[in-house]
Inverse folding.
């Protein structure tokens, strides 16, 4: 029905523990684990579970998380609850909680939540290492802002860093690519002093009309990691700062040109692709104007490099479109084409119906929303590509 043919010996694995769905950051918080429920329902309704190996990974242990994170930070995370927290406590603030933003609230089951999404990314990496999968998927992970001793931007534990550390036990070089609308600062920072990980992030960068930077405020084209020539990490980060409203054709061209050049030059043994869906048009927090298939083009492009591939989620604040995108990208991995009409037996189909919710189809035109004018001129993007390719020369020596 969907034209799916599984090439002999080609395995896609799906790592998902449904218990993540039951966690809530708070009713006004933009991060909704409910988007994972919608994603799973779409994947199942299209029958994609028959084309993949499904796993329900166990939560990561304290000691597993301590491979990257400080034990004092993890002790705090594992003990704090909405009832025992003390907003005036010095460690509470220094670990990234509270403050005026409250981006990272303390909620019931926080420790369980972070262990679940991290366990799934580590299990996915494990499958790649053992050659049980060519592509391993964890849509619940991708929390790229977390630092070793600090929560940041909705991220408490950095499952990406943990998964990459795991991959490094058998891979000489790992390439990390990040298409979330935000800069992947936590991953970049964690590996800033090694040449065994190259980080590449595409994101919005700049200031709003009130002079506030777009979160997290880092990731200009000039930021390439350490500058000291004795530091092995020198030149092993590449940042692609973009402006509001970038469209499908511009993004696809940039992504293919720059990512292709990085892969050619760096020759990674494995690739990790963070697929934050807040780079779509109509996202509640994002500023870009991408359609689902342009976002999926990035997955297709990376899949075609034919390296072991870890696909992880990330941001995405309009849940119905997050679900559409990650379902489409799951199909891209297994080589299936999906009908534009959503399966009629889909649970929660109302979430996708009605003009404002995308009219009951898988691929609505997200440009419709027209929330952000495109201020990326072709001339500026051309200069950006030139600058990016020049930056690649700093990788050696
Ligand atoms: O990459 O921009 C900020 C920090 C602030 C601005 C927002 N205000 C509320 C506080 C101070 C400087 N934070 C960003 C974080 C974005 C994290 C993206 C994560 C990822 O996609 C990976 C998963 C931000 N943008 C929007 C909000 N925070 C935000 C919006 C609405 C709310 C509700 C809950 C909390 C407080 C009110 C909140 C945050
Ligand atoms: Ca990014
Ligand atoms: Zn984001």
């Amino acid at each position: 029905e969907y034209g799916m043919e599984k090439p002999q010996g080609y395995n896609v694995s799906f790592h998902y523990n449904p218990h993540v769905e039951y966690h809530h950051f708070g009713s006004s918080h933009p991060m909704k684990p409910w988007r994972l429920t919608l994603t799973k329902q779409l994947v199942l309704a299209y029958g994609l579970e028959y084309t993949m190996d499904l796993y329900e990974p166990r939560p990561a242990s304290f000691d597993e998380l301590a491979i990257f994170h400080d034990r004092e930070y993890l002790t705090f995370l594992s003990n704090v609850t909405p009832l025992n927290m003390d907003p005036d406590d010095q460690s509470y603030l220094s670990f990234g909680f509270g403050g005026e933003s409250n981006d990272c609230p303390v909620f019931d089951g926080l420790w369980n939540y972070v262990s679940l999404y991290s366990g799934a990314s580590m299990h996915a990496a494990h499958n790649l290492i053992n050659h049980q999968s060519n592509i391993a998927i964890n849509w619940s992970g991708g929390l790229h802002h977390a630092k070793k001793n600090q929560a940041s931007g909705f991220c408490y534990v950095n499952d990406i860093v943990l998964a990459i550390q795991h991959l490094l036990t058998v891979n000489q070089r790992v390439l990390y690519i990040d298409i979330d609308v935000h800069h992947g600062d936590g991953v970049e920072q964690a590996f800033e002093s090694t040449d065994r990980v190259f980080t590449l992030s595409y994101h919005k960068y700049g200031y709003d009309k009130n002079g506030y930077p777009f979160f997290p405020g880092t990731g200009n084209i000039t930021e390439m990691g350490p500058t000291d020539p004795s530091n092995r990490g020198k030149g092993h980060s590449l940042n692609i700062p973009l402006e509001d409203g970038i469209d499908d054709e511009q993004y696809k061209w940039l992504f293919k040109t720059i990512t292709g050049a990085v892969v050619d030059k760096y020759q990674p043994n494995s690739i990790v692709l963070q697929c934050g869906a807040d780079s779509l048009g109509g996202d509640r927090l994002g500023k870009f104007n991408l359609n689902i298939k342009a976002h999926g083009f990035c997955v297709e492009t990376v899949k075609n490099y034919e390296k072991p591939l870890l696909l992880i989620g990330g941001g995405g604040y309009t849940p119905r479109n997050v679900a559409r995108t990650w379902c489409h990208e799951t199909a891209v991995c297994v080589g299936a084409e999906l009908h534009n009409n959503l399966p009629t037996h889909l649970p929660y189909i109302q979430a996708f119906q009605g003009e404002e919710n995308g009219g009951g189809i898988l691929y609505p035109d997200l440009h419709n929303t027209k929330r952000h004018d495109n201020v990326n001129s072709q001339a500026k993007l051309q200069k950006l590509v030139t600058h990016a390719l020049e930056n690649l020369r700093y990788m050696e020596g």
